[in-house]
Write a structure and sequence with these properties.
The chain is mostly beta strands and 228 residues long. It has helices spanning 5-15, 180-183, and strands spanning 21-23, 32-41, 46-55, 62-64, 70-73, 76-77, 79-81, 86-92, 97-103, 109-115, 129-131, 136-139, 149-156, 164-168, 175-178, 190-201, 211-218, 222-227. It folds into two domains: 5-117 and 200-218, Immunoglobulin-like; 129-199 and 220-227, Immunoglobulin-like (Sandwich). Strands 2, 3, 7, 8, 11, 13, 14, 16, 17 and 18 form a ten-stranded mixed beta sheet that branches. It is elongated and about 60 Å long. It starts with a helix and ends with a strand.
């Protein structure tokens, strides 16, 4: 049975922080799983390009590149971040599209394009206050969810503490609901809301074990009053 895109995405969220790293040159190059992400953060007005390489599958051992192997975004060599196990390239402004390239240790090159389309762009609702006495429905501005898209909502105290998260993956949905039980964990008179809208797809070029491409848009933070 094939693994769905959303199953792979959720597995990435669970396994993202991995302390085990291996040199990609020591493994079968056809067994390297490739993940690419183009992510725009509206709060920072910066775009992040990420590449990650794992052995065998999406939750395999994190691999670092060496020798002739390298990762690039729009011909810019990406830098390795050992804490996250990812390669990254940071750009000012909203970079809507670009091309990832990766050359393995056999000299084989894989090229994949990604775009943050208008369907990924959403806006915050016009909300000034929420109540912990009831569930809150975050109704975003923008299109309803399409296939292989999701909206994740983060709600936290202004300091970033007590961060709560809910995820909507239902095709056709235009909102995501956070329950009163989670809202009750917010202890400050105001809260910060941030939403991510993502789309997942399969790379056109990848080794035998495949890969994943994510296009993501993050809204600016929305500050709301929290009523009892």
């Amino acid at each position: 049975m094939k693994t769905s895109l959303w199953t792979m995405l959720l597995m990435i969220l669970v396994w993202f922080a991995s302390c085990e790293t291996e040199d990609a040159a020591t493994v079968d190059q056809s067994r390297i799983h490739t993940s690419y992400e183009l992510f725009y953060n509206a709060a920072e007005n910066k775009t992040y390009a990420y590449s990650q390489f794992r052995f065998g599958n999406v939750v395999g051992t994190v691999l670092s590149l060496s020798g002739q192997s390298e990762a690039r975004f729009d011909n810019n060599r990406m830098n390795y971040e050992p804490i996250t196990g990812r390669y990254e390239h940071i750009m000012d402004g909203f970079v809507r599209e670009g091309t990832f390239s990766w050359q393995d240790n056999n000299g084989k090159k894989y090229t994949n394009s990604v775009a943050i389309t208008e369907t990924e762009v959403i806006t915050n609702p016009a909300v000034e206050a929420i109540s912990k006495a009831a569930d809150f429905e975050y109704i975003w501005g923008g299109k309803a969810l399409e296939a292989n898209q999701s909206v994740g909502l983060f709600v936290s105290e202004p300091s970033g503490e007590n961060n709560q998260f809910v995820l909507q993956v239902l095709q056709g949905a235009s909102s995501v609901s956070i329950g009163r039980t989670l809202l009750d964990k917010i202890k400050t008179p105001t809260a910060i809301m941030i939403a991510d809208r993502s789309r997942s797809s399969i790379p056109a070029e990848a080794p035998t074990v495949g890969g994943l491409i994510i296009a993501k848009y993050r809204t600016p933070p929305l500050t709301v009053k929290v009523n009892p």
